[in-house]
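Annex B, item 7. Sequence and structure tokens for protein A, then protein B.
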Amino acid sequence: MSASTEQLRAEETNPAGIFLRALDEQSVRIRGPRQVSISALVVGLLGPFAALRSKSVQRGLLAIVILDIPLQLGTHVFYREADAASGALAGLSISATTIALLGLYASWFIRALEGRRQEARCAPQRNWALLCYLGLSALSLVVARDVRLSFFELFFLLQMYLVFLYITHFVRTDEDAQFVIAAVLAGCLIESVLMVALGFANASSGLWGPLHIRVSHELNGEFTRIGGTIGSPNEAGAYLSALLALAVSLLFAEIGRKYKWLAAAVLAFGGAALILTFSRGAWVSLFLAITLFAISLGRRKGISIKALIPVVAISLLLYAPFHESIKARLFSDDNGAAESRVPLMKLAFRMIADNPILGVGSNNFSAAMGDYVTSEFRRGFLYTVHNKYLLVWAEIGPLGLLAYLAFFTGALRKGWACWKGNDPLLSVIALGLTFAIVGNMLHQTVEILQDRAMTQLLWVFAGLLTAMHNTMRTQRFSSDPFSSIT
């Protein structure tokens, strides 16, 4: 059966098409102003549905989701400053991502009803580790001291899952992957330029967000830490380090010149912005990601690592004007910032020992820690534990921690399989994404990194690796049915 015949049959069975044909037949017998009003009413009713079927509208909505990662356009309903000041997710997150997701899934539903596209009929890419993590987060509501806080995080995690699911389902071609990557890097470039401008203007740490992360972060009176629209300098640093690792990978991929120029701009402005966060964890995570990337690239025959020369050159140019501040940040007294994390870890282990199965409840660490505070916190720093793994373990139990680790481990396995697939475009980019996640996982040992910007970016990365893995398997099977990418 030809493609035109299939399209004609789909149009004949399309409910919207049937309705419009009936309207056309009826309009033959209707004349005058009434015909115009009925036609205008139909166009007004069916216009949004027709728009949601458009590929360009779907890409626009997906671009909003991605650009909203750094811009953080939204609000928190039922927000309380006291919850945020202790490290909890405070308030119900309603953002541009929330609204765009409604449009994306309405589009998915319409396309599935029409059945006109093969991808609309494909089964969703379920991630069982992630579903277990969500399920255990929901189950922890039964033990949560503050159910309201647990519900805030569950609602947030559901949105992140919908982002992950959409990307894994609809990124089917190299062009789709390049669109997502370009949107992610464009968002990073916008954020980096803004942060550099804030740094040179000696402005406050963040432009908006909770008060406790908008205030200036001064270290030894020498420099101010910048958080941009993300707010927290540590969160902004984690965001930038992950995307700088991705930008480096584009320099080695067989991709268009405009993408390489975009990557170079991200490296220049993003590198400067990363320095201005003065986040030591972000610096270390980026160094680890680029080192592992270079080692893996150097071990593969036929790939030159000469593209690292401009990366090194940009790094030296950025280091020169900031070398004294960087040296002070790395080797000077940090006023006990690193040491203060140790008592918080001990507090987390006490909490885990008392709640070994279900934990204290999702997003309830700050609500429960009052029962475990000892004399060492009388003058010390009291906050949610600065270790994401201990936080997950304490809040939703050991099974929740295993599910969390399994989710990222699965993404890393898919990324490494893509690298082994020797695709001139997707393999190199997958390698960059893989080590960006590895670097961030190291960073999570000393930071929470649970705000929307970093969580959404990581889940976009994981969804993109899953989609790229599926794309390469499909391409490999089409060319050789007896071969596959594991």
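Protein B:
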Amino acid sequence: MNGLDSRVRENDNSQTGWGMRLTERNNGGILWGMEKKVVILGSTGSIGKNALKVMDALNEHQRGGGFKVEAISAHNNVELLAKQAAKYKPRIVAIANKEKYAQLKGLIGDSKIEILTGAESLVEIAELEGAEIVVSAVVGSAGLQAVLAAAKKGKRLAIANKEPLVIAGKLLTRTARENGALLIPVDSEHSAIFQAMQAGRREEVARIILTSSGGPFRKMGAEELENVTVKQALAHPVWDMGKKITIDSATMMNKALEVIEARWLFDMTVEKIEVLIHPESIIHSLVEFVDGSVISQMGLPDMCLPIQYALTYPVRVGGAAKRLELERIGKLSFEKPDLKTFRALALGFEVAKLGGTAAAVFNAANEAAVEQFLAGNIRFTNIVELIEGCLSKHTYKEEAGLDELMESDSRAREQVRGAVGQAAFR
């Protein structure tokens, strides 16, 4: 067939929004045969910069088609945003911080590039007509409305930030399903699960296993964590990430959020989700099927591969990802997480079972508490204590719309700030 192997695959995962009926093509390097237009929410962050790197590499490899940057956004980093605009010539550049608009306009200077500002600008570029793919890499809850807007437009959503699925997992997956949007995770663990699940049907899955590096403190006891400094918490042993995500890794909150995310993204009960510590960070997650087969996805700790897979799925092509040489790794080890010491992870399983507004409170309280820790106002162990306090005061609601979720989010942040102001944490 001249190197063209086309087949239509029925995937029985239509409950979630990621299992759409897709035509798979392996055509020797020509990706889809036409240019794909991409919007990147958060282009100046780690994921955003890697997404641009991946697209550069893919465009070099393609003999046709490829990727065109239609719109990019940032919150504050106008200097880098302007440089990206000069290189990629997008139709639209958005800066969420309105105070940075004049500076950005002066730096860009190109009258052909439209400049938007304010939080609402993220929604505008997320639903941009003609753009097929939206990469969501905005840290925190700020990108939730934009992600929902893209889902309503039926776009392919490459989701790198956990918060949309944590805060509004049920709402987002339902919106995607109803509008024909495709949700593909960029988070390395969920990308691994997504890839492994191609080996079977959703109803054949016995359990999914999220792996975790364990962060910098996996060998510490609860008493030792009392004196952890900001500098120590930011020294991740494997991944190079932003400050907030790095602190989440140190508390294992990142894994707690991933449990909630996986519950909605893959339409799994919490009882079928487990976590294993895997310090080498080579196996990014695993799926066990009912026949006992365990399928894993492996690779070096490099975000380029999951980003690329989200952009090119269901096709695989050469790109920017580094190659894994197992003989140089030597060994792969695993251990159970200590749920008593890292209480955030235990809370994550509880919140995942509840769903609804509980997850919004959980996420918002954590964001606010991490801010307080980074500012030097509280101890490392106070992060989880503040989260527990917010959850204990929260009146849980299972079914909630976007306004109710955002109200729960705001109230939790206020409670954290109020608690820190009233107590002597240091």
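Comment on protein B: Residues 1-31 have pLDDT under 50 and may be disordered.
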